[in-house]
C-alpha cells in the first residue's frame, strides 16, 4: 500500500520537475530579454549583474528616442491593431450572419471562393496586394496598413459556425415584432455571439500587432506610421550592437500581448481549437 | 408576388450585410490571385517612380518564368524550404504531443503550465528571432557560452547562426520552441475527449502504458497530426520574418548549381528579396510557381487523408 | 475453480470518503451474482476493486485460489463490459475483439478461431469489418460482450451494461446475457441500479447502500424477507408501503393492536404469531405491506368487520392486466394497492381494505432494521 503511494508521489514529483524544466526552456528567451533590457548599456553581453541606473533607463531611452520614436510606434501599433480588430469583427460578423441565416444568389460560389483562399499562404499575396495598394495611393497610410487584411475568412467561418446555432425562432419572433434587419442583427445576433466576436477581435488584434511583413511592405522607412515590429527592425539596423536598448525596444512589443494573453487566454485557446477541430 | 418580393429583399439585405466584407475580399484576396499572374508577365521598366511603377510595367509574356527555370537561387530556396519543413514539423508535432501527454494529469498547477507553454506561440516572431540572435551570438551569446563550458567550442567564434551547418537548425529550434504550445493545446483537447473507460478496457485487455500510447492515443489524435502537418507546410512556405530577424538568408557559403547560396534562404525570403529589389514581375512569377506547388501539396494531402479514411 | 472471495474489503478515498466498506462476499464458481443499489451505494466501486481498476484500501480479494490484491488487472484473468461499451473507436470490430489476444501474443490461428467463434455466438459476424461509429447501441453492446468472451476469462464483470439501451432492447439483452451465462458457465458479477434486472438475472443478489452491503440472498428470498426498510423499499415495484404505527396490547391481552397514528385504522394480531413484537409494546414502529398484499374487502371471502383499513381513492394507474390504486387512509397515510385490471375506481371512492397479516413486516423506526420472528 505504501509502496504504491510512494511510487505515485515520486511520479508526481518527476512530472512537476519535467514540467518546470520545460517551462524554463520555453520561457527562457523572454526572461533573457527582460534581463538584458535592464542592464547598463555596454553590459549586454556580459553575464554580470550590472544594471542600468535607474533600472528603467533603457526603456525610457527607447521610448523617447528621436530617430526611432517608440512612443509613436506604440501608438501606431495600438491604433492599427484596435481599428483592424474592430473592423474585422464588425464586417466578419455581418457577413457571417447572412451566411448562417440567409439565402442569396451565388451563396455557394462565394463560399467556395472564400474557402479556397484559406489554403493559400499569405506570402503569395504580397506582390499583388502591394501593387493594388500602390495604385490606390495607400502607401504609408493607415488605410493601406489595415484594410487589406480586414477580410478574414477564418474569422467569418468561425462566426458563421457559431451563429448557425442561434435558433431561427428568435429571429422570426423579432420579425413579427417589427424589427428591421439591422435591429435584429444589433439586438439579437451580436449579443448572442459576443464570446465568438470577442475571440475574433482578440485574434485579429494579435495578428495586426505582430504582423511584420505587410507593415514592412506597405510603409517606407521614413513613414510616420510605422508599427512596433517594423520600427524595431529599423532600430536594429541602426543600433545593432546595443543589445540592451534592442531588448528594451523588443519588450514594448511583447509585454502588452503577454498581459493581454494572461487575462484573455480563454478566448485565444477556444478560438484556435474551435478552428482546428472544425478542419 | 409577395414571395418574389421577399426573395428579392432577402438578396438585397444579404448583399448589404456582406458588402463590406465582400468588397475587401474581392479586391484584396480574390482579385490578387489573378492580378499576380498578370504582373508576373510584366517587367519593371527603369522609369521608376514608386507610385507609377505598376502602370509603367512592360509586357514580356513568359520571360520571367523562363528565367525562373534557370535560376539556381530559386531552386535552392525550394530545397532550403523543404529542409526547414523537415526540421520544424516533426519536432513540433512530437513536442506538442509530449507536452499534451505530460499535461494530461490532474496535478495542481497544470493550468499554469498550460498557459506558460502556450504563451510563446502568440508572441512576435520578429522579437523572438531577435532574442534568439542574441542567445546564439558569437563570443557573448549565452548558448555558445554554455556549450563552451561543456567543451563544445565550435560556436564560440562564429555563433550558431553564422555557421552554415547550424544556421537553419538554429532558426528551426527557436521557432519550434515558440510554436509547440499551439500543437499542445490541440492535442490536449483531443486527448481529453477520449473516454477514460477506453483506457480502462485496454488495461483489462492487458496493455501497458507504452502500448496504450501507440495503439490508442496516437491513432485517435491522427486528425490533429494531419492538421499540424498541413499548417506546418504552409508556415514553411510562408517563412520570412524569422529569417529576416535571425540570418537574412545567410550565411552565404553554400555551393549549388553554379552559384553561392544562402544557407537559410527559404522561398518566402527569396520572394521578399525580389520584391525588395523592385523586381516585381519576377517576384510575382515566383509567387505563382510557389502557389502551384502549394496546391499540389494540398491535393496530395487530401488524397492521403481520403485513402486513410 | 473461479470463486471470487472478498474478505473485509474496503475502499476509502482521501482518508475519509467511503467507496465501499466491510464487504464480505463469497461468490461461487459459475454463479451469476448481481450487485444492486441506488447511485452512490458502492456497487461500481466494489466491481472496480475486483477488476483492479481501483486499489484496495484494506481486506483481501481472492480470485480462484489466488490472493490478487497486488496483481494487475491484466493478470487477474478477468474481462469487463463497461456501461458505455468502451470500444476502441478507431479499430474495426474484428480488431476490437482481437486486441486483448494480440497483446498476449496468441498465435494468429488461435485469434482467428476465437474471434470467429465469438462473432458467431453473438451473431455479429456481418459486423466484423465495421467501426464502432457505424454500429447501433445494441450492436456495440454485443461487441463489448464479445471482447470479454473472446478472452475466455475466469470471471466476467459487468458494469451497468444495459443502462444506455432503450427499454425494449434492455429486456431483450437481459435474456441474451442470461443465455450466454448458461452456455459459457463463467462466474459473473453484474452491477445495476435497476432492481428488475437484478431480480430477473441474479442467482443471488447483493443489495448495497452508502458503501455497505445490506443483504445478500436469492432474489425471491430477499423479496419475501427483506432485512431492512431500505431493502424492502428498494426491491419490488411498485415499492412496499410504509405506514407509521404504534403497538399496544388490547384489553384482553391476547392481541397486539397495531394502530395507525392520528386516529386511523386499528389491526389486531394474535400474540402467538407475533411474539417478536413483545419488546416493542407501547412503541412506535413502521409497518410494511406490499401493494399485492392489500385487498378490497368486497373481493375477499372475509365477512367480518375486523381489521378493516378505511381509505379513499386518490388516483388509479390502470396498466391493463393490473390496476395500481393510490389511496389515503383515515390516518392520512398514502398507500398503493395492486389489484386486478378489471377493478376500476374513481377518485373519492371509499374503500374498505384488508391487509394480508401473514405478509406484513415490521421495522424499527430508529435502526430501520426488520423485526423478525423465528
Describe the protein in words.
The complex is a heterotrimer of chains A (279), B (309) and C (374). The longest helix of chain A has 36 residues, at 2-37. Chain A is 73% helix and 0% strand. In chain A, helix 2 (57-64) crosses helix 13, helix 3 runs antiparallel to helix 10 and helix 10 (194-210) runs antiparallel to helix 13 (243-278). The mean pLDDT of chain A is 85. Chain A has helices at residues 2-37, 57-64, 70-101, 107-117, 126-136, 142-146, 153-163, 168-176, 181-192, 194-210, 213-218, 228-238, 243-278. Chain A is an all-alpha fold. With 309 residues, chain B is mainly alpha-helical. In chain B, 72% of the residues lie in helices and 4% in strands. Chain B is built from 14 helices and 4 strands. Chain B has helices at 2-40, 63-70, 72-103, 110-118, 125-136, 142-149, 154-158, 167-192, 196-205, 209-220, 222-238, 241-246, 267-276, 280-308, and strands at residues 42-43, 58-59, 252-256, 259-262. In chain B, strand 3 and strand 4 (259-262) form a beta hairpin. The two termini of chain B are 49 Å apart. Chain C has 374 residues and is an alpha+beta fold. Chain C is built from 8 helices and 21 strands. Chain C starts with a strand and ends with a strand. Chain C has helices at residues 43-51, 93-103, 108-121, 137-149, 167-184, 195-201, 219-224, 229-234, and strands spanning 4-13, 17-27, 32-36, 58-63, 66-67, 78-81, 155-159, 187-192, 204-209, 212-217, 241-249, 255-260, 266-270, 284-289, 294-296, 309-318, 322-329, 334-340, 350-355, 361-363, 370-371. Chains A and B meet through helix 1, helix 3, helix 4, helix 5 and helix 10 of A and helix 1, helix 3, helix 4, helix 5 and helix 8 of B.
Distance between the termini of chain C: 36 Å
Write the H/E string of chain C, N to C: EEEHEEEHHHEHEHEEHHEEEEEEEEEEE
Spatial ordering of strands, largest sheet of chain C: 6-7-8-3-9-10
- Sheet with the most strands, sense and barrel status of chain C: 6 strands, mixed
Mean pLDDT of chain C: 89
User: What form of chain A results from the Cα inertia axes?
Assistant: globular
CA gyration radius of chain A, whole angstroms: 24 Å
Percent of residues in helices of chain A: over 70%
Counted by DSSP, the helix tally of chain A is: 13
Distance between the termini of chain A: 47 Å
Question: Structural class given helices, strands, pairing of chain C?
Answer: alpha+beta
Derived structural class of chain A: mainly alpha
Low-confidence stretches of chain A: none
**Helical percentage of chain C:** 10-25%
The total of beta strands of chain C comes to 21
The assembly state of the depicted protein chains is heterotrimer
The chain-level mean pLDDT of chain A equals 85
